[in-house]
Amino acid sequence: MEETQVIIRTEQLGRRYGAITALTSLDLVVEKGDWLTVMGHSGSGKSTLLNLLGGLDRPTEGTVQVAGQDLSGLSENELARFRREQIGIIFQQHHLIPYLTALENVMMAQYIHSVVDEVEARGALERVGMGHRLRNRPGELSGGEQQRVCIARAIINSPALLLADEPTGNLDGGATRMVLELLRELRAEEGFSIVLVTHNQEVAAWGDRTIQMDDGLVIRDDLVGGTPA
Ligand code: ADP
Ligand code: MG
Hints:
Layout: E1 6-17, E2 20-31, E3 35-40, H1 46-53, E4 61-66, E5 69-70, H2 76-86, E6 87-91, H3 102-113, H4 118-127, H5 143-155, E7 161-165, H6 173-190, E8 193-197, H7 201-204, E9 209-214, E10 217-221
Parallel strand pairs: 3-8, 3-9, 6-7, 7-8
Antiparallel strand pairs: 1-2, 1-4, 4-5, 9-10
Helix pairs in contact: 3-4, 3-5, 4-5, 5-6
Magnesium ion (MG) binds next to α1.
């Protein structure tokens, strides 16, 4: 595989917290444009993996390469820049600022990334179908609508990799489908790759490939076969 077609490459990647091994011996290669689903019990290391891929945390073992950059070699400043330029993140808890409107929440992300551009922020909210709710605060929006604002916020810097940690965990079936359809659409338009954590088999079906984690180890990867769940 040409290196230019690889978005993620980890070698013997591991993360220990004192005596706890949160992630161990992970060799993972993900192709650009792919949608990888990560499943596994609570505490199996899913968020740890996402944090390492997003440069939010550093490995204690092995290496992690994202978008051609070896994150282990980056300084704190370089890592912050890597996050700004390459990574978009969506969480289960929306982490929107309650006293800012939808538009202001997206503009706040712009402010952190680079410069505030209201037209661009408005455009991002229109793309996620929230053009009519620009002036509403999170408390005035449904769970699905809040998650759409988060998606607008995550894609504002055209990330190479979108990380989603149980993004539909708090949503009902209808809102879940809407969020997944939106991610599928945006990926087709923007060409970013996705790593999405979920407990839900139906949600996993939206991805191209699923890995299953248990106790810090990948115990199943449907790319290399194994027992179907
Ligand atoms: P998951 O997202 O699959 O529920 P995590 O990646 O959050 O699992 O956690 C994996 C393991 O690492 C758990 O045993 C958890 O308690 C531990 N862990 C995660 N983050 C920390 C931390 N900052 N300090 C200590 N232990 C942690
Ligand atoms: Mg988690």
